[in-house]
Amino acid sequence: PSQIDDLKAAEPVYETLPGWNDDLTTVRNWWC
Fold this sequence. Notes:
InterPro entries: Adenylosuccinate_synth_dom3. By secondary structure, this protein is mostly helical. The protein is built from one helix and no strands. The radius of gyration is 16 Å and the shape is elongated.
């Protein structure tokens, strides 16, 4: 947002998307 008041009012949107079932919370490195 370009205005600080808009940024203050912003709330995150958490979505669960299909297609990935593995837990990634312990991943520390990613190699392609």
